[in-house]
Amino acid sequence: MSTEQIAVESLTEEDAASELERLAREIARNDALYHGKDAPDISDADYDALKRRNDAIEARFPSLIRPDSPSRHVGAAPSETFAPVVHARPMLSLDNTFSQEDVQDFVAGVYRFLGRLPDQSIVFTAEPKIDGLSMSIRYENGRMVSAATRGDGTTGENVTANIRTIKEIPQVLPKGVPSVVEVRGEVYMAKSDFLALNAQMEAEGKQTYVNPRNTAAGSLRQLDPKVTASRKLKFFAYAWGEMSDMPADSQYDMVRMFKDWGFPVNPLMKRLNSVADILSHYDEIGLKRPGLDYDIDGVVYKVDSLELQARLGFRSRSPRWATAHKFPAEQAFTTVENIDIQVGRTGALTPVARLTPITVGGVVVTNATLHNADYIKGIGNSGERIREDDHDIRIGDTVIVQRAGDVIPQVLDVVMEKRAPGAKPYEFPTVCPVCGSHAVREKNEKTGKLDSVTRCTGGFICRAQATEHLKHFVSRNAFDIEGLGTKQVDFFFENDDPALQIRTAPDIFTLEERQAGSLTKLENIDGFGKVSVAKLYAAISERRRIALHRFIYALGIRHVGETTAKLLARSYGNYEAFEAGMKEAATLAGDAWNDLNAIEGIGEIMARAIVEFYKEPRNTEVITRLLGQVTPLEAEKPTTAGSPVAGKTVVFTGSLEKFTRDEAKARAEGLGAKVAGSVSKNTDIVVAGPGAGSKLDKARELGVQTMDEDEWLALIGG
Prior knowledge:
- It is a single chain.
- Helices cover about 35% and strands about 20% of the residues.
- The protein is of the alpha+beta class.
- The chain folds into six domains: about 5-75, Orthogonal Bundle (Helix Hairpins), CATH 1.10.287.610; about 95-325, DNA ligase/mRNA capping enzyme (D-amino Acid Aminotransferase, Chain A, domain 1, 2-Layer Sandwich); about 330-455, CATH 2.40.50.140; about 460-545, 5' to 3' exonuclease, C-terminal subdomain (DNA polymerase, domain 1, Orthogonal Bundle); about 550-630, DNA polymerase, domain 1 (Orthogonal Bundle), CATH 1.10.150.20; about 650-715, Rossmann fold, CATH 3.40.50.
- The strands form seven sheets. The protein has a five-stranded mixed sheet with strand order 2-11-10-3-9. The chain has a five-stranded antiparallel sheet with strand order 14-13-12-15-16, with no helix packed on it. Strands 5-4-7-8 form a four-stranded antiparallel sheet.
- α1 (about 15-35) packs antiparallel against α2 (about 45-60), α17 (about 550-555) packs across α18 (about 560-570) and α18 crosses α19.
């Protein structure tokens, strides 16, 4: 199981460190896409889930907080396209809340921090959270001098020329304003203007835009201000940066002051005292949301008094005196025009509903996942009903679509009153729509239950599986071959010219050799070129020697993610030992099978998948050809000079009293030992605490060295 699948409370310290590294990398990537390129590839709900998981792991393992932790950073580095602007006061983000209980905790935390009883004496403001691009506009002596995006919170992008094109933003402030004024707020595009722009783009035969937020951000980053001016951007003011003098002493009155100075402010902002009133206003804004001409994704609550704000202060990246209460996923009604089947790398047949286009949460939705055959019938993974009255999903049905944590939105339910007479239940295919091989639902031998997923049995003869496997093989955490992206893989796979064809992974490494003797030169084909081809060959050549865990991960074995591949590499040391062990474990019995299952983090389901992969002759034939082209390196061994347990396999059993199981495992692995979950003839040491049972008995039976906690500590030096 990969670390992202493990519940936070079940993570070991090693797992937590690995997961925090993954989250830091993934959140930074999405920050760059969202803030820097205005092109996110996951939903807001997915992004929020990543942030919440990171925060939860850091709360449980505070010693593992990384210097590049998302909890210490805001946004993304500013683009190099625009000149940098250092913010006089940082532009921080807000913490998010998602439930009434979260809001109650936020309010209670404010009172608790200030040492006051929760007597409703503290006033809060509540206003819509605009889904746009954060902006800071600086005025000196009443005149606009600069405007900058949030960037990474400290340094933003200078977009002054483009901001000057937004008619709602004053160029000059009234007389009497402070000598230095920084007004902050959100640049956005109205829904009506977005739809009009898309209609224009469609009429001109150009590609339409995805949603107003990204369109507004992209418009603001145009090098030509005339393009920005044509996009009809708008602005709401709600905060401030540097101020040479404070003209008011409350959040609400400051925003009213902005209105007096000529800035647009949101009319739905209110002052409130109680949690009940705050939540009531949240519900009220939520009801108005569909009719607003701008996208919002929640309601922001702030302590109104600026004096109290100053006392409450800031955390590393957010104020204690404010939070954003996010809305749940939006829903909409539309029609299922068809149901298509997509085939993935592991052969999974995934049904996708093709929908009459509908806007959900500011995004035009045309597809929605239907997960599997049972989901279409209204049955969950455990056999439970997930929709009322046996509502199955049929072509032509009117359905409720929700845009939640999935990149592809989800069909929640069917409006039965609108089902057409004679509508027939959907028949899930029993053959692969790509290669025609049988499609089956495997049975779990332990439980006797059918797998929820239908899979193509074609393996590498299935074009869909083969191309998806190639895309996985060259992906970042596998062979990471720059210049072999999705489009290039599809091009090479579909090509009938033997000198250009790539159907399996070994073909990648013979491409340059085949090209040398061919009249059809890759550099003469549209989309390539001499320089890009040379770079591609160099990138391929660089990967002829590769880390063992990357090689194992690249094979695309079902259930084997990056973390599992690292476990396998560390446990077997080199590829020859790994392959031999998998082939020896083919009987699902004996020492090799037991050793595989004994690896901490490898369960029986995963072990079966690995062994079955190596039992398939087509897989081993491809691997043999691949090994003729590339060399998997031996796994790096920890620097454990002088360690008495380096290279030894250790099993901990019983109730450990002087350290936790996680601590024991981490310490042993830090000394170069391998920690296993069960005892076999390859076990070197069994450390037994009180209550040790069958594992201790087996160790004695096999003549494995056993010791108690004190003896173990003495061995490793305390």
